[in-house]
């Protein structure tokens, strides 16, 4: 890990699987400058590329990130947990994440 991973409480985000075009909601459970943990309704295949749109209330609109699924597991009645590595950790994106969550 490059950055400290900060636990979050149910930050809602929109996800789009780039290979299928499927869209769904997810909740960000933890985040750092290099990755995030998501709570999703379905298991995502490792290696899948996702477009993640985080709603950050800083007046600049949604923060769109590309991420690659590293792992995904079914957690029984809790849904699925998915680990995502951010593919384009640009300085301004990381700065917006740090400002909001840290």
Verbal overview:
The chain is mainly beta and 102 residues long. Helix content is 11%, strand content 51%. The chain is built from 1 helix and 6 strands. The protein has one helix spanning 91-101, and strands spanning 6-17, 23-31, 35-40, 49-54, 63-74, 80-86. A 6-stranded antiparallel β-barrel has the order 1-2-3-6-5-4. Strand 1 and strand 2 (23-31) form a beta hairpin. The longest helix is centred in the last third of the chain and has 11 residues, at 91-101. The protein is globular, with a radius of gyration of 13 Å. The two termini are 17 Å apart.
Which short descriptors sum up this protein?
102 residues, mainly beta, 6-stranded antiparallel β-barrel, 1 helix, globular
**Would you list the SSEs in sequence order as H and E?**
EEEEEEH
Outline the biggest β-sheet: 6 strands, antiparallel, barrel
Low-confidence stretches: none
Structural class: mainly beta
Sheet with most strands: strand arrangement: 1-2-3-6-5-4
How widely separated are the two ends?
17 Å
Tally of separate helices: 1
Q: What does the oligomeric state look like here? A: single chain
Number of strands: 6
Gross morphology is: globular
Q: Output the radius of gyration.
A: 13 Å
- Average residue pLDDT: 81
Percent of residues in helical segments?
10-25%
Beta-strand residue fraction: over 45%
């Amino acid at each position: 890990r490059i950055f400290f991973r900060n636990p979050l409480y149910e930050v809602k985000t929109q996800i789009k699987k780039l290979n299928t075009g499927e869209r769904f909601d997810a909740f960000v459970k933890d985040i750092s400058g290099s990755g995030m943990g998501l709570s999703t309704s379905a298991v995502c295949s490792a290696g899948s590329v996702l477009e993640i749109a985080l709603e950050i209330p800083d007046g600049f609109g949604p923060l769109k990130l590309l991420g690659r699924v590293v792992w995904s597991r079914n957690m029984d009645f809790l849904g699925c947990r998915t680990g995502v590595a951010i593919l384009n950790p640009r300085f301004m994106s990381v700065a917006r994440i740090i400002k909001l969550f840290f």
